[in-house]
Amino acid sequence: MTQTDPDSRTDPNPPTDPETRPDPAGTDPAGAGPNVQADEAEAAEQLPQAGAAPVGEPIGFSTPLGEFPALRGDGVVRVRNIRYATAGRFEAPVAAGIRPDEASALRTRRLACPQPLSPSDELLGRPLRGVEFDEDCLRLSITLPDDAPDEPMPVLVWVHGGSHVSGAGDLAGYDPAAIVREQRVIVVAVTSRVGLLGYPTDDAHPANLGLLDLIAAFRWVGEHISAFGGDPERITAVGQSSGGDALAHLIAADEARGLFRRVVLQSAPFGIRTGRAEMQRRMAEAAGPLDPEASLDELFEAQARAKAAAAGSGLRSAMPFGPRAGAAPLPPEDRIEAAWREHAAGLDVLLTWNRDETAFFFEVDPKLAALAARPVVGPLLRRLIVARTTNAVYRSGMRRFARVVADGGGEVRVAEFDGHPDGSRIGSAHAIEVALLFPATDAWDGAPLVAPDGARTLVAAGAALRAAWADFARTGAFPAGYVPTGHGWTGSLLARRA
Predict the structure, then answer these.
(1) Torsion of the alpha carbons at 85, 250, 270 and 28, rounded to the nearest 10
(2) What is the pLDDT of residue 250?
């Protein structure tokens, strides 16, 4: 089943939401919610084509598994849209057989699992523009150096954010060419099911399909990445926001043990992980029984009802969809910390958060924007709310997770990032480090998150950060002290051992 391409700027049945809420766990290329407003849509048309099709010379990439269709250019080779599993709607994934030519027609297309449009789309430069939505979306893309070394390369597996309701792995704004070219590593970008399709609210279907998709993807990588020059003994999982939340839950899952040696969790919303059962019960009641034969519009309407029913659950209601404790592959909520301890030995962990995480949501929520615009007291209230909510949703919970994993024998480092473009009025907001790790200038140009001129200097400004991530993937080591940003940016990443 396919969904209308959002580049058409139409949405015949947009989900409704009685409230516009800040989404302190969300993002990244979007969190669930209403469509952008008409004036925002008009402004967005002036942005560059963030979702422009990948370019490069079409080639056949030979591997022991066969010859895969690929693109060569910009110093890298991209093998895109490989199917790692198949799944019927609301069904668990089944590992897919290797068919090297299966994705030949998808070599230059960007795919995502079906999802409503997001209110944070504009802030991030409309990263989903031009993307095709299809339920046959359990796919991954592999990017490796064009001049790959003879020895096996470390592998970073990217798990995107988006409040568990939006985004995809292989977006233009996640282009890994810079880190692959500079650091001679392999990046695998994974797309998995999101929203109601990935985390059904009723009890008639598996609750954590999105997590099961990720397990299937990591198994594929572990079994087959050596054919592409990757080292299966040096797989690092990298997840931002809800992607980090998903990876943290996988650490607690027996079925995911041994699938990655190292993990980077960026801005994972640990502060809203627990106490979700009553909210999830209300969501299930509001959504009602889920019909596998329903149209996507009908499912999006059910998703909107479930999201509205989550209101009143405090900060948790900002990211209502996501993993359900006590449903496969997860233990009950009161056993998750014990599972982290049990699974921690031999795991290298890097935890990062941004100093001004929730400043992001002052840009996408009209009520918060109006509050910050009040004369005299507005800026003070903004600073106070950002500091308190950043600590409550991100910093405090990530520090607790660090202690639990360290107690279990894991090697843990924590770091705070306070970098931002020179002249930025937003600050070190949620997702801003993603632009430095994946500095696709055309995709980020015009995005308010990196305004006023941060997009123009992304490649140079993020070089040290990309080197630090690659070194961690390569050896498990991470520099103590400061990892600076470069020209055009202010601030750094301050790291220490947990």
Answers:
(1) -20
(2) 98
